[in-house]
Amino acid sequence: MAAVVDKELCTGCGTCAESCPxxxxxxxxxxxxxEDACVECGVCVDECPNGAISLPD
Length: 57
Ligand code: SF4
Ligand code: SF4
Known about the structure:
Blueprint: E1 4-5, H1 15-19, E2 25-27, E3 31-33, H2 43-47, E4 53-54
Antiparallel strand pairs: 1-4, 2-3
The protein binds iron/sulfur cluster (SF4) (2 copies).
């Protein structure tokens, strides 16, 4: 399990990648989350200005 990016909402701003404590996010056109590195802390969910990241239920 890992945080999930909504590619329709992501603008590729990079804020999430800068905020992730585990360096689990890279940004190409949109944010991509390394499922093995993500610990589901939720920081990126709170930091994304576009509401593009969510944690699975
Ligand atoms: S903070 Fe949100 S909009 Fe910005 S790159 Fe990350 S997921 Fe995309
Ligand atoms: S939930 Fe936490 S560990 Fe996972 S990508 Fe977001 S900030 Fe990084």
